[in-house]
Design goal:
single chain; about 290 residues; alpha/beta; TIM Barrel; 8-stranded mixed sheet; globular; binds iron/sulfur cluster
Length: about 290
């Protein structure tokens, strides 16, 4: 098992350069999201991207790139945003539901070894993919964990589709999702990968539980947590969005166990730029491209 000192030194090194890990880097470092992962293997109730319907969520990512196209995109992105430090993949579906993201990262490592690789996932496929992630050299992953209690998770997640194509609904699906997420997070941190946790704050559902998510994931080696307010839509359109007071309270409780990041900008799956500064450059990046 990786000693705690090494875990935190990886994190400290990254924190200086990663815009989603420190307030200072948030206004100095640039990141690009490569939209290469079209499909998802779970269904969060708040997500408008249905598992088996349209592959691209309108307004969230204007297009899906093939791994080779994504590499060409980085070249142009570096011209538009010279501060580019991080290459992230965050959808528009799940990054581990197909092999497009890992293929892309392997190409990025080869061509741009100076760029930090950041992969965002729901964590369902993490246990079977984490060794490959480490082998490619992906420095950091973000895992979205909205609950560590299946009864609560089932109110947020509708179903999961396992690697054999079998659908698991309700509490049974939620239990599988949580098991895989926690197993994957533990293995990732043991392999020296810096782990960030995203949690969507859903008032009346997990607002009193996120503290427990912080406690459990931190004990598995996660370094930082980002608590994001729910955008009420789809199956959770009737759940209210959290107000600033609730968000502040929940962040404060989580902070007892893990460092909390407060500058998340809800980035699109095809974002480009310095998150805390100026406007997003994705429309300039893809100008003239058919959507
Ligand atoms: Fe939507 Fe992401 Fe949940 Fe998949 S993991 S259903 S893309 S929010
Ligand atoms: Fe990585 Fe998420 Fe930040 Fe994108 S928004 S760079 S995927 S942590």
């Amino acid at each position: 098992e990786l000693p705690k000192e090494r875990r935190s030194s990886n994190y400290e090194k990254l924190q200086k350069k990663h815009p989603c890990m420190s307030k200072s880097a948030n206004v100095t470092a640039g990141r690009i999201h490569l939209p290469v992962s079209p499909t998802c293997n779970i269904q969060c109730r708040f997500c408008t991207r249905r598992f088996d319907k349209s592959l691209i969520r309108p307004g969230v990512s204007s297009l899906v790139l093939k791994p080779e196209e994504a590499i060409e995109t980085i070249e142009r992105a570096k011209e538009l945003c010279p501060e580019l430090t991080v290459v992230g993949i965050a959808g528009p579906g799940d990054t581990l539901a197909t092999d497009a993201a890992l293929k892309t990262f392997a190409l990025v490592k080869d061509k741009y070894p100076e760029l930090i690789n950041c992969l965002s996932t729901n964590g369902f496929c993490l246990p079977s993919k984490v060794e490959e992630i480490a082998k490619i050299g992906i420095e950091t992953i973000t895992v979205t964990v909205n609950a560590v209690d299946p009864e609560i998770e089932a109110q947020i997640n509708e179903f999961v589709i396992d690697e054999n194509g079998v659908k698991h609904e309700g509490v049974e699906g939620a239990k599988l999702l949580i098991e895989n997420q926690l197993k994957g997070i533990k293995k990732a941190t043991e392999l020296g990968i810096v782990v960030k946790i995203n949690s969507v704050l859903c008032p009346g559902i997990n607002d009193e539980h996120i503290e427990e998510v912080a406690k459990v994931t931190s004990s598995l080696g996660a370094s930082i947590m980002n608590i994001i307010p729910l955008i009420p839509q789809n199956g959770m359109a009737d759940v209210p969005a959290p107000d600033c007071t609730l968000l502040r309270e929940v962040r404060k409780k989580a902070e007892k166990y893990i460092e909390v990041f407060r500058h998340c900008k809800h980035c699109r799956a095809d974002a480009l730029g310095i998150p805390g500064k100026g406007k997003d450059l994705h429309s300039e990046l893809y100008k003239g491209r058919k959507e």
